[in-house]
Amino acid sequence: MTPGPFDDRDGAIWLDGEFVPWREAKLHVLSHGLHYGGAVFEGMRVYGGQIFKSVEHAERLHDSARELNFRIPFTVAELDAAAREAVHRAGIADGYIRPVAWRGSEQISVSGAATSVHVAVSAWEWPHVFSSAAQEQGIRLRTSKWRRPAQDTAPVRAKAASLYNIGTLARDEAEAAGCDDALLLDYRGRLAEATGANLFLVIDGELHTPIPECFLDGITRQTVIGLARDLGIGVRERHMETDELTRADEVFLTGTAYEVQPVSAVDDRQYPVGKVTSLLAKAYTRLVRPPRG
Known about the structure:
- By secondary structure, the chain is an alpha+beta fold.
- It has two domains: about 10-125, D-amino Acid Aminotransferase, Chain A, domain 1; about 130-290, Alpha-Beta Barrel (D-amino Acid Aminotransferase, Chain A, domain 2), CATH 3.20.10.10.
- About 25% of the residues lie in helices and about 30% in strands.
- The strands form two sheets. Strands 8, 9, 10, 11, 12, 13, 14, 15 and 16 form a nine-stranded mixed beta sheet that branches. Strands 1, 2, 3, 4, 5, 6 and 7 form a seven-stranded antiparallel beta sheet that branches.
- The longest helix has 15 residues, at about 75-90.
């Protein structure tokens, strides 16, 4: 990730319909979203100056807001245009875009009905999450004590800021233990996902992935499933117990930031970066970085 604090940079951020200097893009300390978790966000990647699936991400931002019972005051087309202009202004070739929407400061109460909704879109250079070695050799996961909640206890279909606190706690613990990320189980003790990426196991040449009932059905997840089917690789979406990890020949994660990221170990179990993972990683790269000329 680009070094340095994110609040002290040159450039501009799109905030509530107009671009403002980066350092002036602020919210009030009594914003409802800060106190009660009323915020949703997206993450988009820029490849060769082009945003991958910008419209799909803008649509999901709207969907997430509806799950939290508020409305984005800008259309999908306006959000898409703002993201593209943010990339253009920053002169980004390979990077990341963060749209975020939150409830304002009209009231401080558990109720958020009287609050306005604010939206910002920022973009910065960010070629990769992990080092080249980690991309090639895989990352280590540590199973967390924290779990993804049931559908009737949290807005699990939303990319909600409040839900990512679970991931923060889990990842901090994993990194403190010398791992790169955490593996989260669901509320039943079944396999779920990593802190911000979906989980895939390769078993006997087929892809097996948990059903996204209590976690986000990622856009990259859907893309990779489509690529696998195009390549003739079987895909099984199903409930998966933890002992499935002992049957897996390969493990990888998918996400906007992670792309197709091999996993070299889950706790004490080791995995090679196998041919299925490599094939899908290459297919994904060809999709987001099509050859020129």
